[in-house]
Amino acid sequence: MGKLEGMYEDDREPTHKEDVAHAKRSLWIALMVVLLEYLFFLLELNIKLPGWFTGVHPRAIDGLPGILLAPVIHGGWLHLFSNLPPLFVSIWGISYLYHSIRLQVLIASYLIPGAAVWFWNDPHIHIGASGWVYCMLAFLFTSGIMRKHPRSVALSLIIVFLYGSLVWRIFPGEPGISWQSHLSGLTGGILLSFFFRRIEIFDPWRQGDDLLDDDPFDDERLTENFPVRRPDDYAHDPFGINGGIDSDERRDFNQVDHENPHRYSPDTENDR
Q1: Helix 102-118 crosses helix 130-146 at what angle (to 10 degrees)?
Q2: Where does CATH 1.20.1540.10 sit in the chain?
Q3: pLDDT tens digits, 70-102
Q4: What's the pTM?
Q5: In CATH, which of 1.10.110.30, 1.10.287.70, 1.20.1540.10, 3.90.180.10 is domain 16-209?
């Protein structure tokens, strides 16, 4: 695999202003996708769509278009609105935290669940964006662990916590739930994280995290901030007033006072 270093062409870290602008762009990307999902659903309700506009029909030639179409087809308002919030947050997280590979990850996570479901031996037609959501969540979590990227892991766990039923819907048993799509998405997201593991990304918070790892009592840092004083320094400056100045550069303040008594006298202004 190649290496995509940094967020910008000159391989530099973004300024705070650029980082905020990037976060806003990521929000707009997520918002546009959610809006398209909503518009497609309105289209389903108001227009009679052609027969090929359907979900994934496993092992059927006429079900192949469903690999592209299934994520934008929903069975009702409840189905739609149960997918939109985690979809929005997942897309924003990938767009923001994985800027340099966001397009590849978003497209791959969109296609993988439907393509995998097509190979299942199942008579039902599978629709909905939940497979896409599972794939992105699995990528955020697994890639975050491999890259030691705490924000990625935290974001995926927050989504799972807010939508706790996501955990149990990868198992068969609940009628009307495409657990095959969920399991395929979960597996696909893990594979994607391994596939892109060697491509470097820029973590906008990495510098801040590294500060937490610094040991304030590290010997080198202590030596840098607090110069080590030699034994002969204490003979001339026992209380450390001169801050470790070399003996040949240190001045005798008593001698200076004799040469220029008005320089250090607290009553200089009153004597004039």
Answers
A1: 130
A2: 16-209
A3: 999 999 999 999 999 999 999 999 999 888 899
A4: 0.68
A5: 1.20.1540.10
